[in-house]
Design goal:
- There is one protein chain.
- By secondary structure, this protein is α/β, with parallel strands linked by helices.
- The protein has two domains: 3-202, 3-Layer(aba) Sandwich (Rossmann fold); 297-436, 3-Layer(aba) Sandwich (Rossmann fold), CATH 3.40.50.
- Helices cover 46% and strands 14% of the residues.
- The chain contains 18 helices and 13 strands.
- It has helices at residues 11-22, 34-41, 52-61, 71-77, 98-111, 130-143, 165-170, 182-192, 204-235, 239-248, 270-283, 289-292, 294-312, 335-345, 364-373, 377-380, 385-391, 402-411, and strands at 3-7, 26-30, 65-68, 80-83, 118-122, 151-155, 174-179, 198-202, 316-320, 349-353, 394-397, 417-420, 433-436.
- An eight-stranded mixed beta sheet has the order 3-2-1-4-5-6-7-8, with helices on both faces.
- α4 (71-77) crosses α5 (98-111), α5 (98-111) runs parallel beside α6 and α17 runs parallel beside α18 (402-411).
- The protein starts with a strand and ends with a strand.
- Bound molecules: nicotinamide-adenine-dinucleotide.
- Residues 7-13, 30-33, 36, 84-87, 99, 102-103, 124-125, 158, 160-162 line the site of nicotinamide-adenine-dinucleotide.
Length: 439
């Protein structure tokens, strides 16, 4: 069992205090609001949460909870501090970090007097980079000590939801710890390793970012379901029936499918069906701003690749892949065709390799599309990847199958640049200069 200090006794801090004390730890709660300290001191909860009234009364009566307004005393009394102070929005949308800055400086000053290793776990939601770029220097300066040597900082995002906070505390989706030191990770494991979920270690920056990413994803999902419902209402369709069906596909819908960073989407279906959905919504006067911005976001991603190609200053471009996804010769709405067209438009020389695309075999709508978009494709296509590598200064790679990667590893020269659109496995084995699309 551990001695723990908790800074900030709002929803996150108060629930953590009650649950850690329930689990047998000795916990000291610190807050700048005297009324919160007084409530807890008298066995009452400072937040309205299911189960908190009874739990706080019990753990306070059992004597495992103290409260204090003195940061120094709380740090000296504990082995580990959880920092849960608020990080609200400033008027310009940025994060108001005044509370966390103050607490970091106060904890640092207290650490000056401590000779045993102390773990500080930041649990407030923080803009990526805050712990390493702002809080670590602050604590080091105030303590005169070194992170990873004399004390150990880490970031552990909190995923509880108000209204079911105790249940979420006991059954979180996962425990994520961003840390540089094993010591910090092991202390967090001592506290939360028993929970019925995966315990995942990552970098501090990734842990800070994943919290934002999860909340943004939740917001996006809610808005998606509600936009779908508004369209359903206008069409006389039951939105619950539709969304239940959507969620019953755990292969493509509620799954990691389509959640891997990569290149823009394309193909004969997604763009066409989105446009038809938006047209339908317009005819019924239904506004769908999120769905309405999906195609724009997709073209921004294409532009991102094009700007990297142009910024490289290379004139001879080799494109590896052309169809909208590997293994098909469907070129309709392939973002790689747009990319090829844009390179040609900018006066760059281009050669293309795609083992699935044989001009002589293209038929029907596919052939008409390519004749209209890149009429001179025949002159650009090469039969072998080796030819494309030999003729290029910059290789834009959109295929990552083992055969393609093997040739790239063998043929790419140190003077060549590789722009990776698909996260090539074994990219470190490439002899050229490597550039990821956004990694
Ligand atoms: N509420 C949630 O459901 C939830 C879930 C996950 C993460 N978070 C994040 O956790 C953090 C805390 O959220 P919350 O909802 O518990 O906030 P809250 O506003 O309810 O509580 C914050 C507490 O910090 C105290 N405080 C401010 N400055 C202090 C200082 N210098 N020393 C000690 N205490 C100080 C405040 O008095 C307040 O009691 C935020 O960053 C939030 O984004 C919240």
């Amino acid at each position: 069992m551990m001695n723990i200090s908790i800074f900030g006794l709002g929803y996150v801090g108060a629930v953590s205090l009650a649950c850690l004390a329930r689990d047998g730890h000795d916990v000291t709660g610190v807050d700048i609001a005297p009324e919160k300290l007084e409530l807890i001191r008298s066995g009452r909860t400072p937040v309205v949460e299911e189960g908190m009234v009874d739990l706080i009364a019990r753990v306070v009566a059992e004597g495992r909870v103290r409260v204090d307004s003195d940061t120094r005393a709380a740090v000296l009394r504990s082995d580990l501090s959880l920092v849960c102070v608020g990080t609200p929005s400033a008027p310009n949308g940025s994060q108001d970090q005044s509370a966390i800055l103050r607490i970091a400086a106060d904890i640092g000053a207290a650490l000056r007097e401590k000779s045993t290793p102390h773990v500080v776990a930041f649990r407030s939601t923080l803009a990526p980079g805050t712990v390493e770029d702002v809080l670590r220097p602050l604590v080091e300066a105030a303590s005169g000590k070194r992170d990873g040597v004399d004390f150990h900082l880490c970031f552990q995002p909190e995923f509880l939801r108000e209204g079911s906070a105790i249940r979420d505390y006991d059954a979180p989706p996962f425990v994520v710890v961003g840390a540089c030191s094993d010591f910090a990770v092991e202390r967090i494991r001592d506290l939360f390793g028993h929970l019925p979920c995966r315990f995942l270690r990552t970098s501090i920056r990734a842990a800070e970012t994943v919290k934002y990413c999860c909340n943004n994803f939740h917001a996006l999902k809610i808005v998606f379901a509600n936009e779908t419902a508004r369209l359903c209402e206008a069409l006389g369709v039951d939105p619950f029936e539709v969304m239940n069906l959507v969620c019953s596909d755990t292969q493509l819908n509620i799954s990691p499918a389509y959640l891997r960073p990569g290149f823009a989407f394309g193909g004969s279906c997604l763009g066409k069906d989105l446009r038809a959905t938006l047209h339908l919504a317009r005819t019924r006067d239904v506004e769908l701003p999120v769905l309405g911005s999906v195609l724009e976001s997709n073209s921004k991603h294409l532009e991102h690749a094009i700007s990297k190609i142009l910024a490289s200053g290379k004139r001879h471009i080799g494109l590896v892949g052309l169809s909208f996804k590997p293994g098909t010769d469907d070129l309709r709405e392939s973002p790689l065709v747009h990319l090829a067209e844009r390179c040609l438009g900018k006066g760059l020389s281009l050669v293309v390799y795609d083992p699935s695309v044989h001009l002589s075999k293209l038929l029907g709508a596919n052939l008409r599309y390519i004749e209209a978009t890149v009429p001179h494709l025949g002159k650009l296509l090469r039969e072998h990847l080796e030819e494309v590598v030999a003729e290029s200064e910059l290789l834009v790679v959109a295929l990552a199958d083992p055969g393609t990667v093997e040739v790239l590893v063998r043929e790419v020269r140190p003077d060549q640049l590789v722009l990776d659109l698909v996260r090539i496995p074994d990219a470190a084995a490439l002899r050229g200069r490597y550039m990821g699309l956004c990694w």
